[in-house]
């Protein structure tokens, strides 16, 4: 580890592997390969070891180039020092396409295995259509059991150390757990102070499923996000009391809930600030303020029509 790198706590998954609680996220509406590669190398210098990508993000190849450069520069001694998460997109969410999709992700990343492979969403789309968002007539019935069996096969082949899901509600998790030989180690969902998902968090805790939060700061500046978190007066008050930013307060709140999270910033100063959350704790008064924040889901799902019933079952 470089002299400027900051150690990040790990959480132990039910697969027995350790996962850094902070991930460097690479999902963006305007990804540029050179920018992603440079940011990832800088992230490794700063201490990031968990990198979150997906086939749909188009960030796997530049990330792979960044990992190779980090090895060449001696920033890491081996690939084993990194924790790499990728995801299966809806157009590949079919039993016979899972293995080829994972193999393509590994090829893009220049890796022999992933640390974590996630079903991106409990939905399937026509294989020839890879887009966002989808129209209703472009979606197909989701063969959850068939897809998960194929995911488990990828695990048994040693192509991924752990397996999990994303955007799964408690009902979807119940369905999956009813037949899964290997339970999901992680459920990656939208979660932040303005969408706290208390019921889902409690359910996952009882099932030993670690939650990773995407949009942990509300995805301000994106087409699907909002300013609810970053412009929250309550969070600003808490931050002022602790000498911390709103982002740091929000990430600290997630950490104290036992939630891991993927942060997306390619600005060096903000990348550093995301680590500066382990030197303070929130008070009871802070929690009372956070509990007052109006709850609004930002991400409806990968479609042009309302997916609330499919993805979230009206949960909060």
From TrEMBL:
The keyword Oxidoreductase applies. GO terms for molecular function: oxidoreductase activity, acting on the CH-OH group of donors, NAD or NADP as acceptor. Substrate binds at residue 120. Keywords: Oxidoreductase. The keyword Oxidoreductase applies. InterPro entries: AKR (IPR020471), AKR4A/B (IPR044497), Aldo/ket_reductase_CS (IPR018170), NAD(P)_OxRdtase_dom_sf (IPR036812), NADP_OxRdtase_dom (IPR023210). Pfam families: Aldo_ket_red (PF00248). Residues 23-293 form the NADP-dependent oxidoreductase domain. The active site is at residue 57. The record marks 87 as: Lowers pKa of active site Tyr. One of its GO terms (biological process) is secondary metabolite biosynthetic process. PANTHER family: ALDO/KETO REDUCTASE. This is NADP-dependent oxidoreductase domain-containing protein. It comes from Arachis hypogaea.
């Amino acid at each position: 580890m470089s002299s400027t790198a900051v150690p990040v706590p790990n959480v132990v998954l039910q697969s027995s592997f350790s996962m850094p609680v902070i991930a460097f996220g690479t999902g963006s509406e305007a990804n540029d390969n050179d920018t992603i590669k440079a940011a990832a190398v800088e992230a490794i210098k700063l201490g990031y070891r968990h990198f979150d990508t997906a086939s749909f993000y188009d960030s796997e190849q530049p990330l792979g180039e960044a990992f190779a450069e980090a090895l060449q520069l001696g920033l890491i001694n081996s690939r084993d020092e990194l924790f790499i998460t990728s995801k299966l997109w809806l157009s590949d969410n079919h039993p016979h396409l899972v293995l080829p999709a994972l193999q393509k992700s590994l090829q893009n990343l220049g890796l022999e295995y992933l640390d974590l492979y996630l079903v991106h969403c409990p939905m399937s789309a026509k294989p020839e259509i890879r887009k966002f968002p989808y129209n209703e007539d472009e979606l197909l019935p989701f063969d959850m059991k068939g897809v998960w069996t194929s995911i488990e096969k990828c695990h048994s082949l040693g192509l991924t150390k752990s397996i999990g899901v994303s955007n799964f509600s408690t009902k979807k998790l119940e369905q999956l757990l009813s037949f899964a030989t290997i339970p999901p180690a992680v459920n990656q969902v939208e979660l932040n102070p303005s969408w706290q998902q208390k019921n889902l968090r409690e359910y996952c805790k009882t099932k030993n499923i670690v939650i990773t939060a995407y949009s942990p700061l509300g995805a301000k500046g994106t087409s699907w996000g909002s300013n609810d978190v970053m412009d929250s007066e309550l969070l600003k008050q808490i931050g002022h009391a602790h000498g911390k930013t709103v982002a740091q307060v929000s990430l600290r709140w997630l950490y104290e809930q036992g939630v891991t999270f993927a942060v997306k910033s390619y600005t060096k100063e903000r990348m550093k600030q995301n680590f500066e959350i382990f030197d303070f704790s929130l008070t009871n008064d802070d929690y009372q303020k956070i509990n007052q924040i109006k709850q609004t889901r930002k991400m409806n799902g990968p479609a042009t029509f309302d997916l609330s019933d499919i993805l979230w079952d009206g949960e909060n």
